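ARCHIVE CARD
CATEGORY: sequence design from structure
SOURCE FIELD: tokenized fold
FIELD CONTENT:
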């Protein structure tokens, strides 16, 4: 498949329909769309780290896998992304369960091995990331892939928007809000939050940590696949396009506060604001300086995050 648009680095504001003119409605849409993607990616990453203290640097590759799954279903099976994205989520959730049992479950049962795993998880997930990148490259080559879906221009309040980006924003916002409600109001969600906040105390009150670990692992992978499927609707994807999103997710988590799910959503919005409006007001060349400048500033002045709680 040919590219529908020039490829830029992931997260580049022009990928979300933003031309570098100061047009507030376009800037606002680009910000909210990018924030919805960042929130989903960071939420899945934060869940896995918060519950198991495992640093999943392969999270972006799971997102990429979801994008390629959606792409393959659309181009080869002629399935709409509305149908194939849920299938990609189920597939990625199953992959998460396999990875959990194959790589981590037996180690997490032993306190000594679990402590060692926390320090070595970066290497384990880096290996998984490399394997997934090469498997995707072998299956689809390294060329950028894309497809056209809902690429009609619609007018909202006199401002033209691409329909697929409005759909990405709507689905991303609904998914993020649904997950936040799940973790705030459901018994399973409250148990996960308890595990994140006080793992030892959660075990004392009868919370089954092993069962929740498996659930969180599969949910984190499924949410990453959802983000990847949404991105594939409007942007080019390559086997290596997930890593920058992983870095952005880490920035979002630091901004929002480590282990804070609600803070991660606010952190995603803060990062998207800086990235989109900062690039528009200065130059796209300054994007990395703005993003990582904000990241370093927060680490120096408020290491618990902009929205995190200060520890005792």
């Amino acid at each position: 498949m040919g590219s529908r648009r020039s490829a830029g680095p992931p997260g580049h504001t022009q990928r979300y329909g933003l031309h570098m003119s100061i047009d507030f409605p376009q800037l606002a849409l680009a910000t909210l769309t990018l924030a919805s993607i960042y929130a989903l990616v960071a939420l899945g990453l934060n869940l896995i780290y918060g519950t198991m203290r495992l640093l999943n640097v392969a999270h972006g590759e799971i997102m990429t896998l979801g994008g390629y799954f959606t792409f393959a279903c659309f181009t080869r099976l002629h399935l709409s992304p509305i149908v194939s994205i849920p299938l990609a989520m189920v597939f990625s959730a199953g992959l998460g369960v396999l990875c959990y049992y194959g790589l981590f479950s037996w180690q997490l049962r032993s306190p000594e091995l679990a402590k060692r795993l926390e320090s070595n998880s970066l290497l384990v997930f880096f290996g998984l990331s490399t394997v997934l990148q090469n498997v995707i490259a072998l299956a689809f080559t390294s060329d950028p892939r894309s497809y056209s879906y809902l690429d009609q221009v619609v007018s909202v309040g006199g401002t033209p928007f691409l329909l697929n980006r409005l759909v990405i924003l709507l689905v991303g916002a609904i998914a993020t809000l649904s997950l936040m409600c799940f973790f705030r109001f459901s018994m399973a969600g409250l148990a996960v939050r308890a595990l994140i906040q006080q793992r030892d105390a959660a075990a004392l009150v009868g919370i089954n940590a092993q069962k929740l670990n498996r659930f969180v692992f599969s949910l984190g992978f499924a949410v990453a696949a959802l983000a990847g499927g949404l991105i594939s609707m409007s942007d080019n994807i390559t086997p290596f396009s997930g890593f920058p999103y992983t870095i952005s997710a880490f920035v979002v988590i630091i901004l929002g506060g480590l282990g804070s799910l609600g803070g991660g959503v606010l952190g995603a919005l803060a990062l998207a604001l800086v990235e989109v409006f900062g690039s528009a007001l200065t130059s796209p060349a300054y994007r990395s300086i703005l993003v990582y400048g904000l990241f370093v500033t927060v680490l120096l002045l408020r290491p618990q995050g902009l929205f995190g709680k200060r520890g005792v």
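CARD ANNOTATION: The chain has a mean pLDDT of 82. Residues 26-241 form one domain.
SHELF: design records, drawer C
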